[in-house]
Amino acid sequence: MSVQKGGVKSSHYQAESNMEQDIDRKAWVFKPSGLNFIWGGDSRYWVIPKEDRTPAELKMASWLEVTGSYNKIEPGKTYRIGFKISFTSDATGWDQAPVFMSAKVGKKGKTVWKRIKSVNNNIEKLKGGTGPVNIPDETDGRFEVFVSPKVAINQDTELQFGLYEVWTGKWKKGLLVYEAFVEEV
Predict the structure, then answer these.
(1) CA nearest to 87, candidates 62, 119, 112, 114
(2) What CATH number corresponds to the domain at position 64?
(3) Cβ(77)–Cβ(184) under 8 Å?
(4) SS3 helix, strand, coil % of the chain, rounded to 5?
(5) In sequence order, which ranges of the chain are alpha helices (DSSP H)?
(6) Is the Cα dihedral 66, 72, 76, 82 positive or negative?
(7) Domain range enclosing 29
(8) CA 122 to CA 63: how far, in whole Å?
(9) Can you give the pLDDT at residue 152?
(10) Which of 14, 15, 52, 151 is deepest in the core (most CB within 10 A)?
(11) Measured between alpha carbons, how far is 185 from 38 in angstroms, rounded to an integer?
(12) Is 107 helix (H, G, I), strand (E, B) or coil?
C-alpha cells in the first residue's frame, strides 16, 4: 500500500493536518493521522488507523521515525513535547534499541536530542498491558524546547519534533503510538 503525495507513490505516510486542542491539558494533540511515519504507507511495516481512538501499530521496522510539526509557537515561550505509547504483548527488538526524541524550531534551527531510557527500562511492564504511557516519563525528565524571543514572527517558526530509533539496524515490532502532544509550559 502506498500513499499518494503530489501524484507520486510513497511507502511513507504523510500527515494530514490533524491536531486538536485539549483545553484541560493546555496541549495540542496529534493523533496518528496527524503524524508522519517512515514506512507508514506500507501495511507490512505500519498499520495507520483511520479512527482517531485507535493507535498506529508498528508491524516491523529497522528504522523508526515518527515525526510531526506544530506551527502555533510564540517567541519567548517554552513547549513540552511527548508521545503516548504502549506495546503489544509480542513486541520485540526494544531491549537494546536506543529510543530518542528530537525537536527544532524552523528548518535551520538547532536540533535538540533526548534519549528516552524509560522505554528500554520498562519494556516488559509496557508489554504487560499497563495501558498507554507518556514518554518521556518522570525518570527521563521533561523534553522541552525554548523559543528564543529574538525569533521574528515572519521567520520559519514551525516546531518540528520526532521519535527515533535508527541506529541499531535491528528489527523492532509491537510499538503502539496513540498520540503526540505539544503543550506550552
Answers:
(1) 119
(2) 2.60.120.260
(3) yes
(4) 5, 45, 50
(5) 117-121, 123-127
(6) negative
(7) 3-184
(8) 21
(9) 65
(10) 15
(11) 29
(12) coil
Indicate the pTM of the whole model: 0.89
The pLDDT assigned to 9 comes to 57
Q: Which residues contact 74 (CB under 8 A, 6 or more apart)?
A: 147
pLDDT digits (tens, 9 = 90+) for 79-130: 999 999 999 999 999 988 999 999 999 888 899 999 999 998 888 888 877 7
**What are phi and psi for residue 32, nearest 5 degrees?**
-50, -40
Please answer whether residues 151 and 45 qualify as being in contact, where contact means their C-beta atoms are separated by less than 8 angstroms: no
Question: How far apart, in whole angstroms, are the C-alpha atoms of residue 100 and residue 83?
Answer: 11
AA identity, residue 157 = T
Q: Rounded distance, CA 39 to CA 150, Å? A: 37
Distance (Å, whole) CA 16 – CA 95:
32
Q: What is the pLDDT of residue 128?
A: 73
Question: What is the bridge-based pairing of β-strands 100-105 and 56-58?
Answer: unpaired
- Among residues 140, 138, 135, 144, the alpha carbon closest in space to that of 179 is found at 135
Q: Which amino acid is at 133?
A: V
Greatest CA span in the chain, whole angstroms? 48
Alpha-carbon span 54 to 22, nearest angstrom: 18
- pLDDT per residue over 16-63, tens digit each? 766 788 888 889 999 999 999 999 989 999 999 988 789 999 999 999
Q: What is the DSSP letter of 33?
A: G
Average pLDDT in the 126-152 region?
87
